[in-house]
Fold:
Amino acid sequence: MIRIVKTTPYKDQKMGTAGLRKKTQTAMQENYIENFLQSIFNTIPNLEEKSFLVGGDGRFYNKTAIQKIIKIAIGNNVKKLYIAKDGLVSTPAGSAIILKNKLSGGFVLSASHNPGGINGDFGIKYATSSGGQCQPDESLAIQEQALNITEYKIADCDDFDLSTITSYTQENTSIEIIDPYIDYIKLMESIFDFDKLKSLFKSNFRFVFDAMNGVTGPYGKKIFEEILGAPKGTVVNSIPLEDFGGLHPDPNLIYAKDLVNLMYSETAPDFAAANDGDGDRNMILGKKFFVSPSDCLAILTDNYKLIPAYKNGIYGVAKSAATSMAVKRVADTLNINYYEVPTGWKYFINLMDSNRISFCGEESFGTGASHIREKDGIWATLFWLSIIAEKRTSVKEIALSHWKKYGRNYYLRNDYENIPQDIADKLMADLEASLPSLINKEFKGYIVSDAHPFVYNDPVDKTSTKNGLIIHFKDGSRIVYRLSGTGTSGATLRTYIECYETTNLLEDPEVMLKDLSEVSRLISYITSRTGKTKPDIIT
Ligand code: VG1
Ligand code: CO
Structure:
């Protein structure tokens, strides 16, 4: 039986950089998930012809929310649901499943790299038939619905067993519990030379993959250990846990501490990678060596010919404005298309759909390609393994020879967290107003050459988006300022800082960018406005 339930809106149901992201206890409020799902369905016509994927990264409340989504979908007469077995699907695999099966969209329940558990975060990433997150106008339409919702439709039925591959029919909806691995694994096999990777694992090569107790554990076990022959135990933290074992499933130098310590110890293996909770982010490490995400994108692009799927050429590459300029140097040399877009993977989708780019990346540990419409941590890891299998040299050597060829963009992201929203908004507004007056001014030896808000004009649908403020200096250095769109408490100010070097290639970025970091605080009065003399997080 379908029930119509009267409800009242939650005023905070706004889409952020990557869908809806909230404190878990916020998401657990009565009707919270129901309202949001109904709001999405209200924007989609002809639901009786539509099919959706549902799954998540395994965090706390995943299973409860999946049952709610199934029942709301039945209530709205959706034609078909593909539910990931055990409710587990990575964000990239979700995109692959939507595209391969030509689904109308999907829901991946994840707050990505944010901690899980009842005191952690919860989220819903809503993808359309593009295989990626909905576009800004679609987000607005959903928000509009959410802010005015008065009722939702839900099926009165028992929960569904998600633990076996089977199918059900309820009212007019068919529900199929699917294997969430197979389509993704086949896709990876179609891109990379698995035989070559197997031969790498037959040598003395040693690799650790840290799934951070998130959803890529089972994917990693199947791909690296079972198929490619890496030794058992190569994948660590491999069982998806509701609270990520208390870890913060964010693959960076701070939160993947055990892995970083291992890689900087005398017993370090040759190569390591970590993925975030939902498997779209990656961190790449060599022996005593860290590859920054911006460099990662540049290095992968420079080596595209080594990968069977790309050996005949790539269309081009795109990066978020906040990401370092390293990949532009490669794009210019390779003479391929190059685009700079706002932060958020959705901005890459039009460029991929129109064959303008093949690769893309963000400084926030995201790299990916047009095989799907999300960033892809395992893809990036397989790409690095392929480069190593070909060159049989160390990660450090690969990066160093890249810098020798192109120069090095030293890069840091400084985050100032938990700032009261009004203070953060005012800081940004005042900084924006002051930009014209900064031109030609000197700060600690750095002279401003240009300063402007970043405006992106989408070449496909002709929309323009404003995201962040950019300050260029005469020597090629840059500072980008923007406010996070994924936080769940207070505002986070992100400042992205870079300089360019052609000779001094092996310095510590924090040393290289010490003065420029100070300049970033001076120009925007961070300290006097927030009381913070240094960033809370440096990545
Ligand atoms: C952050 C990152 C951004 C990324 C987004 C989603 O957004 O900066 O690059 O696309 O998270 O990543 P923000 O607005 O907080 O800076 V994930 O792994 O949630 O999908
Ligand atoms: Co993520």
About this structure: The chain has three domains: 2-180, 184-406, 408-538. The chain has a mean pLDDT of 96. The chain has 18 helices and 25 strands.
